[in-house]
Amino acid sequence: MPLNTTTTPPFVAVLVRGLLAGLIAGLLAGAFAYVAGEPHVEAAIAIEEAASHADPATAGAHDHEDALVSRTGQRGGLFLATGLFGAAMGGLLATAYVLLSRRRRGDDDGRSGLLLAGAALLGAVIVPFLKYPANPPAVGDPATINQRTVTYLLMVVLGLVAVWAGSLGYRSVGAQAPTWLRAAAAVGGFLLVTAVSYVVMPSFQEVPADFPATLLWSFRLASLGTQVVLWTGIGLLFAALMHHERRRRAGTALPST
């Protein structure tokens, strides 16, 4: 009996492709962060060091911190961190791909994985970034770091909820509704949850008045660009790998002559 090529491949096969796509995308994101972000990190550290050495009370502590983790070690660890993070995100995307397999069309060969990556980029990156953009060294009160970390993670969850609300709004209108109406319902559901989240969540205004605005936003855009490269890479690579897997399975299903 011919193999049904429209079924989802085994979970392990999908997971391996997700991990591989995430690892490669993570290394690409690391390369982008190194080229686009490291110069701004160096400039921010220089400002932090100048301020620290100007204050005798903190100069010694700053020197001790420099001895603990060198900049060379941080640069090398950048690729390790982005590679491992990318692999983890690719694994999560592959898991979601399998769990949502019943909702996909039979001829889907990875396109829904690309949509999942786009949803993750929107909900877990862009929505939190607009509320809590990344800050370079020398920006932020150390006393509030735990609070800022918790609120950022909560904003990530709310961003994903907003994406889910948009998806729910799109489906709730009905398959027979005009496309524009379904799209409007999706955008409305997404914006409603996002707007409420922005109003409810606290804000942090901790950027020093004398910190260069150009450096600040250059760092933030480089940070956002790193995430865009990561999730775009995961989506495209995973879709390509799943397309190749479907073609391979279709080839093995052909009867021998």
Can I get a quick summary?
The chain is an all-alpha fold and 257 residues long.
Domain unit count: 2
Overall geometry comes to: flat
Structural class: mainly alpha
- Percent helix: over 70%
How can the largest sheet be summarized?
A: none
The total strand number stands at 0
Walkthrough of the structure:
Helices cover 77% and strands 0% of the residues. The chain contains seven helices and no strands. The chain has two domains: 181 residues, no CATH class; 66 residues. With 257 residues, it is mainly α. Keywords: Membrane, Transmembrane, Transmembrane helix. InterPro entries: CbtA_put. This is CbtA family protein.
Task: Summarize the SSE layout with pairings.
Blueprint: H1 11-54, H2 56-68, H3 71-99, H4 111-131, H5 145-172, H6 179-200, H7 213-253
Protein traits:
2 domains
